[in-house]
Amino acid sequence: MAEPLPLDVAATLNALLTGSGQVSSALRAQLPYARAVGRYGCSCGCGCGCGCGCATVDVAVDHTAVPPAPAHGNPAADAWYAEPEDAGVMVFTKDGYLSLLETYSASSEPISTWREPRFVER
Predict the structure, then answer these.
(1) Residue 105 phi, psi (nearest 5)
(2) What's the pLDDT at 44?
(3) CB-CB contact of 33 with 66 (8 Å)
(4) Cβ of 2: how many Cβ atoms within 10 Å?
């Protein structure tokens, strides 16, 4: 079931999509029309995770409300976190629309919560 993007997810996407490039601008314009359609990596014990334990959210955008971003590769944007230093975040798209936001860890410890956007290093 689709729900509004959680504030921490929206803030992370906004920080990750900074810049004046056409792709970043087009993807930022999709944020008001984006909804969370699945979340993974939560620590509540509900079993919804993908197995790795890192915070991840599937995103759907209303295609009738906003155009797709120009052609680009995937991930559409990625960055490391300043804290913790061994973690990062990536955003993926499908057909020019936001589709997935995912944290990852280079250590054995999963990143189970969204870090503050100020820690995103582009």
Answers:
(1) -125, 140
(2) 39
(3) yes
(4) 13
Q: Whole-angstrom Cα distance, residue 101 to residue 75?
A: 10
What integer pLDDT is reported at residue 69 of this predicted model? 98
Strands (DSSP E) along 23-73, which ranges?
A: 34-40, 56-61
Q: Which of 21-30, 35-44, 104-113 is least confident?
A: 35-44
Predicted TM-score of the model (pTM): 0.86
Residue 9: Cβ-neighbour burial (10 angstroms; 0-12, 13-18, 19+): buried
Q: Which two tokens stand for residue 42?
A: 């939560």
Q: Which helix (H) or strand (E) holds 26?
A: helix 22-30
Q: How far apart are CA 49 and CA 91, in angstroms?
A: 18
Determine whether 18 is exposed, middle or buried from the number of CB atoms within 10 Å of its CB (0-12, 13-18, 19+). Answer: middle
Q: Which of 9-13, 53-57, 72-76, 113-117 bottoms out in mean pLDDT, i.e. has the lowest?
A: 53-57
Higher pLDDT residue, 51 or 75?
Answer: 75
